[in-house]
């Protein structure tokens, strides 16, 4: 089973898998570790005394979140699925005790079945139809009673003009490619008419140091020079200036306070 091309995980707008992109993902994992650990702990509480036999990390990248899942939940097996061959190899190198497989998260059959814990963070924002993805996972890889754990952005707000403009541009670009930066606002609706029953849904307003967030955004901005939408719609002079400002914020040469990140966290159970 394959979701139609317009829902493919092989999207036109990605952060890539270069050395810089990999470093960015490690920083991302560090910045969001605390609330992700808490979310996994909540999932564990819903499982009660039941131990997890197989946990799947969709879009695992270099494996940092997969590592966290394994450490917090202690499943018998933990598998990360990732479309990038480079990231799969890197994940295997960093975490030799875990299993990583190159596989499109929207293509069934999957290389594992009957998973009782499915996790994704900052993945559905890059998929054209979160509803179709969640329905596919429920129908193909999830065991009856499995838990689905989601963390996605609802909004990103900053009082600094450079960061505010960056979030505006990212939103425009993602919408052009059929994606949604603030997909967290849509997650409850995305699970409607699927086998998933929501057990917990919460919007958490997270305050992240602007310097750390800018360290994620500046490398991404540097990839836009090869992006057709950015080339056609954004002023290259503005992009260059924005990159300089974000770099200065990341390095602490400009103080920009905090970024207010509203995040939707959901735990759902397959009926």
TrEMBL record:
Entry keywords, A to Z: Methyltransferase, Transferase
Listed InterPro entries: Methyltransf_25, SAM-dependent_MTases_sf
Record carries keyword ATP-binding: no
An annotated GO BP: methylation
Keyword Transferase belongs to the record: yes
Domain named Methyltransferase: residues: 56-133
GO MF annotation list: methyltransferase activity
Protein name: Methyltransferase domain-containing protein
């Amino acid at each position: 089973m394959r979701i139609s091309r317009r829902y493919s995980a092989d999207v036109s707008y990605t952060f890539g898998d270069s050395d810089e992109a990999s470093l960015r993902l490690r920083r991302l994992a560090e910045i969001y570790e605390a609330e992700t650990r808490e979310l996994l702990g909540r999932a564990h509480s819903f499982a009660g005394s039941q131990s997890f036999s197989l946990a799947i990390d969709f879009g695992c990248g270099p494996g940092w979140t997969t590592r966290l899942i394994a450490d917090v939940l202690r499943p018998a097996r933990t598998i990360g699925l990732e479309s990038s061959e480079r990231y799969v190899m890197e994940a295997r190198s960093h975490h030799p005790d875990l299993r990583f497989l190159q596989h499109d998260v929207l293509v069934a059959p999957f290389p594992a079945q009957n998973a009782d814990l499915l996790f994704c963070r900052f993945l559905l924002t890059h998929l054209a139809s979160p509803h179709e993805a969640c329905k596919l996972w429920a129908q193909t890889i999830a065991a009856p009673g499995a838990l689905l754990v989601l963390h996605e952005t609802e909004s990103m707000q900053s009082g600094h003009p450079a960061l505010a403009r960056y979030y505006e541009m990212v939103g425009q670009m993602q919408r052009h490619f059929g994606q949604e930066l603030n997909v967290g606002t849509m997650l409850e609706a995305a699970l409607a008419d699927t086998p998933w029953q929501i057990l917990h849904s919460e919007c958490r307003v997270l305050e992240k140091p602007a310097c750390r967030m800018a360290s994620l955004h500046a490398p991404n901005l540097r990839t836009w020079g090869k992006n057709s939408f950015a080339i056609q719609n954004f002023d290259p002079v503005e992009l260059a200036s924005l990159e300089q400002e974000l770099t200065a914020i990341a390095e602490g040469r400009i103080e920009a306070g905090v970024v207010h990140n509203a995040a939707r966290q959901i735990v759902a159970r397959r009926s």
